[in-house]
Every structure is written in structure tokens, then in C-alpha cells.
Specification:
The protein has about 120 residues and is mostly helical. It has helices at about 5-15, 20-35, 55-80, 85-110.
Length: about 120
């Protein structure tokens, strides 16, 4: 007797790919980790508890991060649907968005790249 198509799909999904919930949870944890580590660097100490940058800069950075998460979700959806070409295009958009976020972070927080301090 042949297994049902849904059984085959479910077995492939659980053996080959992490679930969408696992991917989402790992991204949320990474995002929270980044949000926690940026202010923990003592950037508020010199400014009498005023965050660096102006409100608009910080809002732009938040929007860029949200856009990055949306692009990741769309890419993951394309992967689940099997459209590798679209997924590659989303990967390029994700890389561009990451560059934009790093540029915004440097303009707000300065160049805090730890690799320069060997």
C-alpha cells in the first residue's frame, strides 16, 4: 500500500527542513539579541540618558529592520514553495537591506566595529 501524499510531504518537511516556526523563533531571538546588545554598549552614559541619533534616524532604523524581517519571511515562503529563483532574488534584497541597516547604525551609533580592535 502506498503512503498518502500528505504523509510524504510531512515526512520530508520534518526530516529535511526546520519548521517555519523554528526559523521564525530563531530570527526573533537574534533580533532581540541585537536590540539588547546595541544599547548595552554604554552609548547612553555620556548623553544624560538621551539615546544617540534623532527620533527620525531611530525610526528609520526600526523600519529597515522590519523590512528585513519581511524580506526574510517572503524568501522563506518562496523556498517552501520551491521557487529558488525568487528566493535568490530575495537573498539579494536581504543583503541590500542589511547594508542599509549597517549604514544607518554607523550614522547613529558611530563605527563600533570590534574587528578593528585586535
Amino acid at each position: 500500500m502506498e503512503p498518502a501524499a500528505s504523509d510524504l510531504v510531512n515526512s520530508c518537511r520534518t526530516k529535511t527542513f526546520p519548521s517555519a516556526l523554528d526559523l521564525h523563533q530563531s530570527r526573533v531571538i537574534e533580533h532581540l539579541r541585537l536590540d539588547i546588545t546595541i544599547p548595552a554598549g554604554g552609548v547612553y552614559a555620556d548623553d544624560n540618558d538621551n539615546p544617540p541619533g534623532n527620533h527620525r534616524q531611530r525610526e528609520d532604523l526600526r523600519q529597515d529592520r522590519q523590512r528585513l524581517e519581511q524580506l526574510r519571511q517572503r524568501r522563506d515562503q518562496e523556498i517552501r514553495e520551491g521557487d529558488k529563483h525568487e528566493a535568490r532574488e530575495y537573498n539579494e534584497k536581504i543583503q541590500d537591506q542589511k547594508r542599509e541597516i549597517r549604514r544607518d547604525q554607523r550614522s547613529i551609533y558611530g563605527n563600533r566595529d570590534r574587528r578593528d580592535h585586535d
